[in-house]
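hi! just following up on the protien thing from before. the input was this:
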Amino acid sequence: MSDQNEDGYKAMSAEHQPEEKVFALPATMPRRVFAVVTLGGLGLIHFWILLTTPPVALIGKVFLLAMGAVLLYGTYRLWVSTSRDILMTAEDVREEGGRVLCQIDDIHHVQRGAFAFKPSNGFVIVLNDNMPSRRGWAPGLWWRLGRRIGVGGVTSPGAGKAMADVLAARVVHRRLDEQAET
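and the predicted 3d structure came back as:
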């Protein structure tokens, strides 16, 4: 007897199954395409200027070549990083591929106000003081500087707001549980 289901996929035992997602924050295709076309177009404009009306100074040529290459590489990174969703599970916030952004228990609060330093259509997760200061970036999806994780960019505004509200509610619920225990 085979341990495959009717679709032909191998069945996983309960301890090896991935944790069930509570909420998914995907990159929307129109915003994703617009960001890629804009950034890639800017990189191509640098190469076009270099080929059609090159600067006299060598440093100007090097600058246009370097900036065009950096922008095209950034375009590639943007396309790859926005192919994954941000997932919120009962335990953590992670990328679809498994990269953990933070544990739910490590969140101090969530900022999503108009004057918060946050990505477009997104929110900022502020971690507890005892968290190590790290950096990370998935262009168009999230960034991390120190204790702050900015989530958003090419994501849907409504889905970003909903995820921020759910995270904020979980933080408040956790604090109420901690107060009830003491």
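The mean pLDDT is 84.
The first strand starts at residue 21 and ends at 25.
cheers
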